[in-house]
Design goal:
heterodimer; A: alpha+beta; 6-stranded antiparallel β-sheet; two-stranded antiparallel ribbon; globular; B: 6-stranded mixed β-sheet
Chain lengths: 300, 182
């Protein structure tokens, strides 16, 4: 089935989170869309192996890495192409060149940074585009350095430098949310000092508004950091109840209406604390369940 | 017994309840006033209520959560008193997966009630499959709730999903005799 959509609906950060958490292997193609009168029609290709980014290019002829190598003057275009053919379908071109003593480990790292980190981070600035993930694609050894990066690491870097958050506005957590950790212990990712400060509040007790006030940060910035930490799988934002149930003396219109139509619900006289055991429903008898299942069986 | 039907806007919550209720569903739909208007002209502002009276003394009550993305006290009341709930997710609308994930977080924090994931709109263009939707909802291993495809417009399909939810409820209740699916 398709994994496809528009970035304005399913953002690049969410796609990366999905691909990493699902340990996906394949090719993510992003078709850039421009609002200008002359659309760029730029296409970006990002290859994943087991949820890690292994290569990226803005051309489909598998000549991107060769071009980067020759652009740096490390090999001529013709020679680099020849090595790309020699590396075959099993060994990444970067590793092959290293094994032949043509490129050093440092040069391979620099290539990976230019090819993947810089290029993919820049994609986070796209306001819209169309994406498609194909899990049946064979990984192109001639585009691969042999290095890889977790998609979340790239996301973290990309979102840190993002200036225009308008495309992600609807994805930001509610200021009334709290945050909880989704991992055991401390994060392995390198967080900056502000991210660490917010991480310290992952006890589910403080609303984002309150965190912003205590850290003297704009609420927008806190929401953006929480989103960032959330899509890299470190935390989860948990919505809080916006307003408490009205007191008996002044029931809301909805509570009155609800009480009239659904008498089995008990409406509290005031906001109940979280995890109120007394509010838990009683167990349903087995005879009730058996009768209900028999009834439904006849309807299905 | 109280079951809650929850999920993002336009996942099919109100339709689901209407399809199985034996009373006229109490409709609290109002004209939508926010971004919801892009999806539907009306949305549920309080909750939907439906009832399935299957014997003189026994009835199943179904509650649908408000459609708009605000978690107000009504959510709190509904989930705290639910025996089980079904999360409806439109399989062709990946933009709603994050909100669906937030719904799950909200529910989990407040109630241990068992949940069933109901995938709707699987006949629309470009639907995501169950495995990928589970990943998007944050279920990264085999330890996830049961998943069922449901067409909220078809009473038979809704009945089957309610049966699956009740079956799941039974399995999570220690010491309760499990009804068979005869």
């Amino acid at each position: 089935m398709a994994i496809t959509g528009h970035l304005i609906e399913f953002s690049l950060a969410e796609i990366f989170q999905f691909l990493e958490q699902g340990h996906k292997t394949g090719l993510l193609t992003v078709f850039e869309q421009s609002e200008s009168e002359t659309p760029k029609n730029q296409v970006h290709y990002i290859w994943f192996k087991q949820g890690r980014i292994v290569a990226a290019a803005n051309r489909s002829d598998h000549h991107g890495l060769v071009s980067l190598i020759s652009h740096r003057g490390w090999l001529g275009d013709h020679a680099a192409s020849r090595f790309a053919q020699q590396c075959g379908t099993k060994v990444p071109l970067g590793l092959y060149l290293k094994s032949q003593g043509i490129l050093s480990a440092e040069q391979i790292k620099l290539l990976f940074y230019t090819q993947v980190m810089r290029r993919v981070c820049a994609l986070f600035t796209l306001l819209d585009g169309w994406f498609h993930f194909d899990s049946k694609v064979t990984l192109p050894m001639d585009e691969m350095t042999g290095l890889s990066a977790p998609a979340t690491e790239v996301t973290l870097a990309g979102l840190r430098v993002l200036k225009d958050w308008s495309a992600l506005e609807s994805k930001l957590p509610d200021p009334m949310s709290t945050i909880v950790s989704t991992i055991e212990g401390k994060p392995n990712l390198h967080l900056n000092s502000t991210e660490w400060q917010i991480w310290e509040y992952t006890n589910g007790n403080e609303m984002l508004l309150s965190i912003a006030k205590q850290l003297q940060l704009p609420i927008r910035k806190v929401q953006q950091i929480v989103f960032r930490l959330s899509v890299v799988g470190l935390i989860e934002d948990v919505p809080m109840v916006l307003s408490s149930a009205p007191a008996n003396s002044q029931p809301s219109v909805f509570a009155e209406e609800a009480d009239a139509i659904a008498p089995s619900l008990e409406f509290p006289t005031a906001a109940k604390p979280a995890k109120d055991k007394a509010a838990e429903p009683s167990q349903v008898s087995s005879s009730f369940l058996n009768n209900l299942m028999g009834f439904l069986k006849n309807k299905s | 017994m109280r079951l809650v039907v929850t999920g993002p806007v336009s996942a099919g919550k109100s339709t689901f309840i209407r399809s199985i209720s034996e009373i006229e569903v109490v409709d609290t739909d109002r004209r939508a006033t926010d971004e919801t208007t892009l999806l539907k002209h009306k949305t549920t502002v309080a909750f939907d209520f439906g009832r399935l009276q299957f014997s003189p003394n026994m009835a199943l009550h179904l509650y649908g959560t408000p459609g708009q993305s605000r978690f107000d006290f009504m959510w709190d009341i509904l989930i705290r008193q639910a025996h089980a709930y079904i999360l409806l997710v439109a399989a062709h609308r990946p933009q709603e997966f994050r909100y669906a994930r937030r719904v799950l977080s909200f529910m989990r924090q407040r109630s241990p009630a068992p949940v069933l994931i109901g995938l709707t709109h699987t006949d629309q263009p470009d639907p995501w499959d169950a495995e990928n939707i589970l990943i998007a909802l944050g279920y990264l291993n085999d330890n996830h709730p049961p998943v069922i495809t449901v067409n909220p417009t078809q009473p038979e399909s809704v009945a089957q999903s309610v049966m699956a939810l009740i079956q799941h409820y039974c399995e999570t209740q220690a010491g309760v005799t499990q009804p068979s699916l005869r």
